[in-house]
Fold this sequence. Notes:
The complex is a heterodimer.
Chain A: H1 2-23, E1 28-35, H2 42-60, E2 82-89, H3 94-107, E3 112-115, H4 119-132, E4 136-138, E5 154-156, H5 161-179, E6 185-191, H6 194-210, E7 213-220, H7 228-237, E8 241-245, H8 248-260, E9 267-271, H9 278-284, E10 292-295, H10 301-304, H11 306-319, H12 325-344, H13 349-357, E11 361-362, E12 372-373, E13 388-393, E14 396-401
Parallel strand pairs in A: 1-2, 1-3, 3-4, 4-5, 6-7, 6-8, 8-9, 9-10
Antiparallel strand pairs in A: 10-13, 11-12, 13-14
Helix pairs in contact in A: 2-11, 2-12, 3-4, 5-6, 8-9, 12-13
Chain B: H1 3-35, H2 42-60, H3 68-90, H4 95-117, E1 132-135, E2 138-141, H5 142-164, H6 166-176, H7 178-183, H8 188-210, H9 220-235, H10 240-260, H11 266-280
Amino acid sequence: MSRILKAIILCSVALVLLVSPAYSKVDVVKIGVIYPLTGTSASTGNDYVAAYQLAADIINNVTNIDFPFAKTVGIPSLGNAKIEFVPADSQGNAEVGKAEAERLITTIKPAALMGCHHSAVTKTASQAAEQYGIPFLCPDSTSPALTERGYEYFFRSGPTDNTFIEDAFQFIADVDKAKGTKTQTVALVSEDTEFGKNILNVEKDLANKLGYKIVETITFANNSTNLSSEVLRLKQANPDVIFMAAYTSDTILFMKTFKEQRYYPRAIIGQRAGFIAPELFQTIGKDADYLFTTNVWAADLGVARPIVKTINDMYKKKTGKDLTGDYARAFTGAFVMADAINRAGSLDPEAIKKALLETNLPGKDLIVPWEGVKFDQKTHQNMYGKTIITQFSNGSYKTVWPLNLASTPVVWPVPGWDKR
Amino acid sequence: MNPFQVLIQTIVNGLLLGSIIALVAIGIAIIRGVMDMVNFAQGEFLMLGMYASYWINVKWNLDPLVSAPITIALMFILGVIVYKVLIARVIEAPMLAQMLLTFGLSIVLVNVGLFLWGSQFKTIPNVLVKGTISIGGVMVSLNALVPALVSLLMAGAVYWFLMKTRMGRAFQATSMNKKAAALVGIDTQTVYALAFGLAAACAGLAGSVLSISYYIFPGVGSVFNLYAFVAVCLGGFGSIPGAFIGGLMIGVSDSLAGFYISAAFKYVVAFGIYLVTVIFKPKGLFGW
């Protein structure tokens, strides 16, 4: 008798154990977000987290705006489960980033990971995710190598450095046509770390392919004391357009030296970094006027698309700051992830991976100026990411390209120092 | 610009850069010459001098050139305090202990700067001296010319002080033989404290004149430190004119190599000259 009783109890326990997961309700969808929350990039990291929290607010509550997930509560297909972005601190360090990814995966059991701003950290943290078979969506790092590794669980929604450079050349072609100028010669100026070197290689290839003559190539030391011989070389080579990849201190020094030597080409086109750092304008003021840079985002995109302004205002209310390209990309990534989980209808990593591969978001559902989000089936790189070109004017960046998003007419060629 | 103008422009740029290097190098040379120790924190003193000029400008709207005496005085006091509190404890210790102490001090100062003022780049707007003059097609930036002239004056003044004044002779005596100097009644502790204060004051002056043209951030010292050390070694450790000329040599070689060979190559040439010099003259060009 007791044996039969035991068997019945065991069977019913086994049955409960087997069946219960299928019926257990998902309350919270946890996504780990890894960013530098301490150290020199701390303020950037914390602003990223604020962007994710804003995304969670919109997804989890009914918000009266015209945006995906705004009118519903949580993830509809998972019984309106709330989404929670759990921050972890990479300290901007690749090793720490990987350790934090492992810690998140083994403790909070996230449905997916996101991050990590620095390409080097994204590289190692996504290694951990790949080992554990957890989807990793990177919205922000731009090193092309990340999506060239052939990882199964790694996706990137933001554009890569290659896209920025291709668009910069496209911008020159378009503006030449519009203004009746003819750009023939270019000079390529890059700082000497990973960032500048990658960009220089891509620029060289593209310039040669598109038939621009490279009249000067300069690689300078990051954090230089003095750039006068570099500027003198540029002045002697006299290119139509200078392409420049530099961090903040060198960008400031270059602009000061250009002015001292009273030299300005038809245009200087920067590759983000120092050219989108707020300190550039704070330190050199009006001398920054007319500088071009590739960019991900600018506040004036809200002129053409009101939803962009609405989201920016919500972010500003939360943090006191405007969105930047970084945070706008992270915010977008959060919605790409929510969309995939909603379509997967489950927290199973394989289902989420499959849903990510099937992602097809139109540009109108995004606050970034992209054509949409659709991942390449092999590399998992978003094929529809776009960049914009902005030109500095009166202390802020104005979008001048692509033309359908331009808020201000482009000033081209740029007036020299004596004509300002 | 014709090739001759370009050559002159390159040399002028090099001299302007070199005199800035010399500004930092002179401070290192004083401490090395008098106390026979290497101060790795000299670049950070420069950074503090720049921040002092910056904050005086923010609070009282004084131009860095006007506030230079205040900055110099503040830095002199700081130098004496640093000597009394830290350096005096290791002055008899092995060289390694002294080096580690000043190296540690430089790290502490950079991080205190990061903590207090953040890592943002700052510049002083609306300075008195600005603009560029053109002399026969050669562009000379006025706010780079001021540091160059000050550097020359400072090197001259420090040299005059050490060679011609009674106190300067006490400095020399202490540097040659500390015990003998003490025997004839020189208070060597005071001499050391004053030497350290003088070096810090030089950094204060350098900070004042540099802050009108350069960006200011906590790591700015390290930007100049390396070249300044090479200038000191090149000129001969402890020699004030040597440090000044060493700075100019580094500046001009940097500028010439950067223009005529390749920008990526300028460090190779500047440090190459240094290597060749120490192979043939291990004590530097003007070393004892």
